[in-house]
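Appendix B, example 12.
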Amino acid sequence: MGREEAVKNFHLPLPEQTYRGLRAEAERTGVPATTLAREAVDSWLRLQVRRARHDAITAYAAQMAGTHLDLDADLESAGIEHLTNAGKATR
């Protein structure tokens, strides 16, 4: 039912210190170094996507500031009031 994802090999020379650290972590955890490296790269790539999305939203908000597409002042005030009250309720 579940198809396996295509896998490509990628040769990645590492500085000695990084290589030793990766090998030590693999030994410590019992997880293959290639798995640890793959997970680290995947995590970094997800972070880059999130950063790019954040940057795009920030740029859009800056571009729309002061226009008719800017946040409604009443809605903004209500949001701030809600967040302020929510912070007090959790204390």
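The mean pLDDT is 92. The radius of gyration is 23 Å.
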